[in-house]
Design a protein that fits this description.
Layout: E1 2-3, E2 8-9, H1 22-34, E3 36-50, E4 56-69, H2 85-91, H3 95-108
């Protein structure tokens, strides 16, 4: 997904609300940012990095399969793309996102099977 505020391509992510479980946060953030409701799959390795303000970040990711919904451009996300592995690797702005993509490929394959 493309975030105009940062002019980057990344995976959906966000901060948990008070007392919100990580899984509930993942569902909510994906829904808010993409308009999709998804079935949760396997957890992927967490991404660990330092943000632009120097704060350490840990982001948890899960494999997800869309079940319904539709993307509508919004303030946070102006475009989403469904890409193959090579296209996603080229589009992603951050190495830590490429590491998440690599983990997903190890889990489910590269889509060419």
């Amino acid at each position: 997904m493309h975030r105009p505020r940062y002019d980057d391509w990344s995976f959906p992510k966000g901060k948990c609300a008070d007392e919100e479980a990580d899984v509930a946060c993942a569902h909510r953030e994906v829904g808010e940012e993409t308009g999709l409701r998804c079935r949760l799959g396997a957890e992927l390795p967490a991404a660990r990095y330092v943000d632009s303000k120097g704060r350490p970040k840990v982001v948890r990711y899960w494999e997800m399969t869309p079940t319904d919904g539709e993307f509508t451009p919004n303030r946070e996300v102006d475009e989403v793309r469904w890409l193959g592995v090579a296209g996603a690797r080229a589009a992603l702005s951050y190495d830590h996102d490429r590491e998440v993509l690599d983990a997903l490929v190890r889990l489910v394959g590269d889509g060419r099977r």
